[in-house]
Write a structure and sequence with these properties.
The complex is a heterodimer of chains A (75) and B (156).
Chain A lengths: L4 E5 L6 H11 L6 E6 L4 H12 L2 E8 L2 E7 L2
Parallel strand pairs in A: 1-2
Antiparallel strand pairs in A: 2-4, 3-4
Chain B lengths: L4 E6 L4 H16 L3 E6 L32 H4 L4 H15 L5 H10 L3 E5 H6 L12 E3 L1 H8 L4 E4 L1
Parallel strand pairs in B: 1-2, 1-5, 2-3, 3-4
The chains are: A alpha+beta (75), B alpha/beta (156).
């Protein structure tokens, strides 16, 4: 999937993947896509909850080599 | 959608109890919530510029996971609290858990409002110069004004 920016949250524990994803989105334009890579298993549920509550669209979530990959489209 | 609000009363100053208010506040702020934390009694320790004194004690803390079983009589020995604290901090760092300083900065960057309880600041004779900048001082009525409008209100 094409993306405009990537944020690597590998090694970070709750709540940093979410809090820093929010920061990564801050300077992006509406409609731009952010790729987030995380190793925290809790980030799977948390990212979905983050997207639902903030209005950003979680376009895709997958697991690659025990890493969790998310594509978020900024609202 | 109206902005959601959360108010937290932070009353504890031990390492393990310092985390929940800052984790929840920084997360709620990331979700776009309007958040205030009212720091009172030992919670005021979390507002110090220098957080190096925040510790965890194995004493009276039977649920604390230990690498080896430790009788209470051992945990009261001098240096045990410092040892438990440095072990916990090392483990947190290894697991990617944010430091208290980092979480606190993230809260402040995200406009979480920090209120120090004026009564307990006076009670303990704390020096305001030891506290971080950007905090307000207030009392119960000030807290209740905001708390009364919140969706989530926690006492930690």
């Amino acid at each position: 999937m094409q993306f405009d920016k990537e944020f690597d949250a590998s090694g970070l524990a709750c709540p940093l993947p979410i809090v820093k994803t929010k920061k990564a989105l801050a300077d992006m334009a509406s409609g731009a896509v952010l790729k987030v890579v995380a190793t925290d298993p809790g980030s799977v549920c948390d990212m979905a909850a983050f997207a639902e509550q903030t209005g950003h669209a979680l376009l895709e979530q997958s697991t690659e080599n025990s890493k969790y990959v998310f594509f978020l489209k900024k609202a | 959608m109206a902005t959601k609000k959360m108010a937290i009363i932070a009353t504890k100053g031990a390492l393990d109890m310092a985390y929940p208010p800052l984790i929840l506040a920084s997360t709620a702020a990331a979700l776009g919530w309007d958040v205030q934390i009212f720091f009172t009694f030992y919670g005021l320790q979390l507002l110090r510029k220098d957080l190096s004194g925040i510790a965890i004690s194995p004493i009276g803390n039977p649920a604390m996971p230990m690498p080896v079983p430790m009788p209470v009589v051992v945990s009261i020995l001098p240096g045990m609290e410092a040892m438990a604290t440095s072990m916990m901090k090392a483990k947190m760092k290894k697991k990617g858990v944010a430091s208290l300083e980092e979480l606190r900065s993230l809260c402040q960057e995200a406009d979480v409002k920090f209120i120090a309880c004026q009564m307990t600041v006076d009670l303990f004779e704390f020096d305001k110069r030891d506290f971080i900048d950007g905090i307000e001082y207030g009392g119960a009525a000030m807290f209740m004004k905001f708390a009364g409008e919140t969706d989530v209100c926690l006492f930690i």
